[in-house]
Amino acid sequence: MSNSTREPGSESEKNGESRQAHEASSTNAATAETAGRADWRRALFHPRSVAIYGASDDPAKTSGRPVPFLHKAGYRGKIYPINSRRDTVQGERAWPSIAALPEVPEHVYILAPTEAVIDAVDECGRAGVSVVTILASGFSEAGAEGLARDDKLREISHRTGVRIVGPSSLGLVNVAAHLVLSANAAFAEPDMPGGKIFVASHSGSMIGALVSRGKERGIGFAGLVSVGNEVDLGIGEICAATLDDPEIGGYLLFLETLRRADAIRDFALGAAARGKPVIAYKLGRSAQAAGLAVSHTGALAGEDDVTDAFLKDCGIARVDTLEGLIEGLPLLSRVAPRSANTPRQRRVGVVTTTGGGAAMVVDQLGVRGVTVQKPSTETFEKLTAAGVQVSEGTIVDLTLAGTRYTVMKATLDVMMAAPEFDLVVAVVGSSARYHPDLAVRPILDSIDGPKPLVAFLVPEAHAALVTLAQAGVPAFRTPEACADVIAAAFARCVPRPANSLARNVPPDGADRMLDEMEAYALLDRIGVPHAAAVAVDAVNGAPNVALAYPMVAKVLSAAIAHKTDVGGVVLGIRDAQELARALVQIRENVARHLPQAPVERILLQSMEKSLGEVLVGYRVDPQVGPIVMLAAGGVLTEIYRDRSMRMAPVDLDTAREMIGEVKALQALAGYRGKPAGDLEAVATALVALSQLACHPELNVVEAEINPLLVRHAGEGVLAVDALVRLG
Questions:
Q1: Strand 278-282 relative to strand 317-319: parallel, antiparallel, unpaired?
Q2: Chain segment 353-384, per-residue pLDDT in tens
Q3: How many angstroms separate the CA atoms of 595 and 572, rounded?
Q4: Fewer Cβ atoms within 10 A, N terminus or C terminus of the chain?
């Protein structure tokens, strides 16, 4: 990695109940104490001097690893072991404190125990250190006491200007600068391969795991960083600081959660502008966000679902396999992200020397919604003309003939030129291990063809995989990883510009639910049609209500979000007598389920006919901001989980794309001669609800229409229930 001092993107943090807001701009405020401090971006990866605070004399201990790692890597800067109880550490002079050093080190790796970390960071900050990396745990993950330590670290950073990586960071590596500032045992291994990949990981152990796995595959790295708990510097800020480094061609992110989503978005936009793909693997499928929500939208929009929508909106390719994370960047570099409103092209051609191996790939692609395309008649004719004799099936199965260079190369030439394919997968059997020049060499010689070419090697063929990786060929050792990365590459979109997004976050303080009549008033304001409704006295009723029978009666109370759960809904009321009985029934049902919630008003609506029902929801996520969701509607929504989600606001084309992703809505598109529903009206309603993101003055943190009735094409949609929560 070369030195880069580019300003990273804007930074913001909102971690709900577990973190306090912390702004980079205030952290960067200069004070008299920070004058002359080195730029943190250079000091992070190109420090002229480093101090190992708490360095052990025993190289077998975790705190004894960084000093020999730095020497072994050939680090050219000054190394200062800090140990107040020893004069020497591993044969080198040790220093009792930062103040005792002959110069202020630019980067300090703090290996001290948790209880000593605060004082150590304060000492570094007052001395003018640019960056500290903290190994110790026992901070935000350790409850109230740990959160208080986090706050103290932020205060020190704000007051002194020192930037912080961690806590719980196993360090970082810059291969070009020979900087291995890490306590990860994996870096004791010799000959770490260099490459063009930068890794940022919440997990410290994963940076070592990726290096060792990559080494076995001939995949090298430009740099790696274990960000830990991100009390100050996070993944977005650190990665953004490296964007202009010519030694970096792409990024791998190993995520356990999302923090500072705005900074990650800014980094992703910068990476996309420079043609540097970003691929992510995400852990942490948490139900916490769902548990805090009152709507079906919130229950369905758990942390992992929101992360998926956020990464997609940022143009970051998400994979589900660790192998796919390691092997994916070469393909992403060859498949351009899809522009907004551009139809998806997901047609894959498969050529193989082993039918069983190809079938595994086809199965995995099918699971991910990627089409394996049968070659056209013209393509088969061209194969015959080239001397390739195959059966006219979906897969071009060369059998043993494909182990000959001329046969595989001629086949690839034809398929790479065929217009019906967007990508070609070459599946190679045993010859990949025993005769790679016969079946693998043609792939190497075809990689610069007119469309992306991918290799899946069925046997364990280490030498062939290394050869392909070093040539930049997208090559995979499992069918799952192969399909995983192909699907992720096809799904990747050009990120939306930051100025097209709303970034409002839930306000602090108490929230307030609207009753259904108040919610309908909000729908009127944003232009979503709803059924006519009147509110009546729950006891005295409404003998002259101006609504047509049959009718529905619903308890009208801001305190009751899910009316059906408490017996607060009666359907199919046919006359005034049944209406009177329904009012009594609702009062009795609610009193039995919720005795603390008196029923004062009842909402009445005429029952409306439709072809189907959908759910349209909006929610402000505490991490990433506003999201909008479309799902199959009705009371079973949470069971089926048939939904599509995007960052809000969305336009009509995006709304139409979301409709195409909800399986239940295929029946409303005129499936097999059935009447078509007004899906264009669904898209319009989805856009309208998403525009809540552009109106922070309305203070809406959660809004849902369930169900939204879908009528015949041209007849529109109609909301017949609505839930709204204000901040």
A1: parallel
A2: 999 999 999 999 999 999 899 999 999 999 99
A3: 26
A4: C
Per-residue tokens: 579: 């209406």
Domains and CATH numbers, the chain: 16-283 (3.40.50.720), 337-491 (3.40.50.261), 532-606 (3.30.1490.20), 612-726 (3.30.470.20)
* HEC profile of 243-254: CCCCCCCEEEEE
What distance in Å separates the CA atoms of residue 169 and residue 203, rounded to the nearest whole number? 8
Helix or strand or coil: residue 432?
Answer: helix
Q: Are 372 and 365 in contact (CB under 8 A)?
A: yes
Residue 624 CA, chain-centre distance (Å), reads: 10
Element (H, E) at 643: strand 643-647
Distance CA 645, CA 417 (A): 36
Give which of 362, 370, 417 is closest to 394, Cα–Cα: 362
Query: Among candidates 599, 521, 504, 564, which has minimal Cα distance to 706?
Result: 564
Rounded to 10°, the helix 462-470/204-217 angle is 100
Beta bridge partner(s), residue 52? 81, 109
Tokens (6 digits) for 677: 């529903």
Instruction: With residue 512 as reference, give the H or E element that holds it.
Output: strand 512-513
- The model carries a pTM of 0.86
- Report the candidate in 82, 91, 84, 86 with the shortest Cα–Cα distance to residue 59: 91
- Determine the angle formed by the axes of helices 114-127 and 143-160, rounding to 10 degrees: 10
pLDDT at residue 14 above 50? Answer: no
**Of 118-132, 536-550, 667-681, minimum mean pLDDT range:** 536-550
How far is it, in rounded angstroms, from Cα 501 to Cα 506?
16
How many other C-beta atoms lie within 10 A of the C-beta of residue 685? 27
Looking at residue 476, what is its pLDDT? 96
Q: Please check whether residue 333 is in contact with residue 249, taking contact to mean a CB–CB distance below 8 angstroms.
A: yes
CA distance 61 to 58: 6
For 330, the 3-state DSSP assignment is: helix
Amino acid identity for residue 310 in this structure: F
Query: Is-contact 576 545, C-beta < 8 A?
Result: no
For the record, the structure tokens of 52 come out as: 């190992």
Taking alpha carbons only, the member of 462, 499, 454, 448 closest to residue 479 is: 454
Task: Give the pairing of strands 551-555 and 601-606.
Answer: antiparallel
With beta carbons less than 8 A apart as the criterion, state whether 337 and 491 touch. Answer: no
